[in-house]
Amino acid sequence: MKIDEVEVRLVRLPYRSPFKTSFAEETEKHATIVTVRSEGVEGYGEGVMDPFPNYREETIAGAHHLLLHAFGPDLVANGCEHPSELTARWARWRGNPMAKTALELAVWDCYARQQGVPLRTLLGGELTEIPVGASLGMNTVEKTVESVSQHVEQGYKRVKLKIEPGWDVELLAAVRAVHPHIELTVDANSAYTLDMLPLLRQIDEFGLHYIEQPLHWDDLTEHAVLAKELRTEICLDETLTSPARVKAALDLGACTVVNVKVGRVGGLQSVREIHDLCVARNVPMWCGGMLETGIGRAHNIHLATMPGFVFPGDTASASRTYARDLVEQQLETTDGIMPVPEGPGIGVTLDRPFLEQVTESREVVR
């Protein structure tokens, strides 16, 4: 592929309602939208870095610097034969998987559009629709139970609750009293420590499918210890930043379920390697979300069609998050099932007038 230019935008979108986790409460999305142009064809990617390093270490400011002064110029100068080669080529710049992913996704989308095939075809996915779950932020117990009921009625295949010490046992007891048999998971976003084992054992009593990232965001060894103390399966998220890191987690027994977020692991080529590793070991996977706009959401939907993604992911209806999205297509579920966008690439087109309205900055590498 000959790359003519790389465009990097920063956009700001308000959420329908605040989203609260154990580490932050957010009211709006700061998204990096990358466009790659190659011989008359465009491809789109999304960066999931935050303004501050709340989730992982990367930030928007650092990512934009690298996109404009490292990854983007390298891509424009050298092009690529296939998007899969970029991960190894950019390895000389250590870390920064989210920044790399934002550009790599755009190249994959552009390449698939040039080939006239859906992105899922290049990834080995065959599904035309995927089951999805809903992730609920922190609220009052009463409102959370009400929200769980609404999502169950809408057919979502799994409900995930954000928890932290003091916002866990009472909440789970209330939800289970109303919904004793639904597929229920919790996400701690690293809010607990091994010293809280008695509390974690209480959480263990609620018949959860898995507990996600209970301990430190960069830990493997203590998760391996915890896994031996609980009946509930451990799923890792923040800790899993590369195929090598996933392998280490599985080797140590730190988790038995893998949450894949394409931005966190460094791009679609890394996802393919993680997928093959998990399939070979019979380890279930699911696609996590970062409250992406329709661009990132469409990428997630396509990668979740790969056969190793066996649990419902976080690719719920876009209208749960945004009153108006950046894409023209409606990415909405019916009875907990998300259709895969049709057409070449990720199958969505930009709502350009709205994109211009919410753009805060735009820079181009030619």
Brief sketch in words of this structure:
With 366 residues, this protein is an alpha/beta fold. The chain has helices at residues 60-78, 86-89, 97-115, 119-123, 141-153, 169-178, 197-203, 221-227, 243-252, 262-265, 268-281, 294-303, 352-358; strands spanning 5-20, 25-38, 41-47, 129-131, 134-136, 159-162, 184-187, 210-212, 233-236, 257-260, 285-287, 337-339, 359-365. The chain is built from 13 helices and 13 strands.
Could you walk me through the main structural features you see in this protein, from its secondary elements to its overall organization?
The chain has 366 residues and is an alpha/beta fold. The chain folds into 2 domains: 129 residues, Enolase-like, domain 1 (2-Layer Sandwich); 219 residues, Alpha-Beta Barrel (TIM Barrel). Helices cover 35% and strands 20% of the residues. The protein has 13 helices and 13 strands. Strand 8, helix 8 and strand 9 form a beta-alpha-beta unit. Helix 5 packs across helix 6. The longest helix is centred in the N-terminal third of the chain and has 19 residues.
Straight-line N-to-C gap: 15 Å
Please identify the structural class as seen in this structure. alpha/beta
Briefly, what CATH class of the largest domain? Alpha Beta
Write the CATH architecture name of the largest domain: Alpha-Beta Barrel
Percent helix, as a range, is 25-40%
**Which spans have pLDDT < 50 for at least 5 consecutive residues?**
none
Name the shape in a single word.
globular
CATH superfamily label of the largest domain: Enolase-like C-terminal domain
Strand fraction equals 15-25%
The side-by-side strand order for the widest beta sheet comes to 5-6-7-8-9-10-11
Number-wise, the strands total 13
The SSE order reads EEEHHHHEEHEHEHEHEHEHHEHEHE
Largest sheet: number of strands, sense, barrel closure: 7 strands, parallel
CATH topology of the largest domain: TIM Barrel
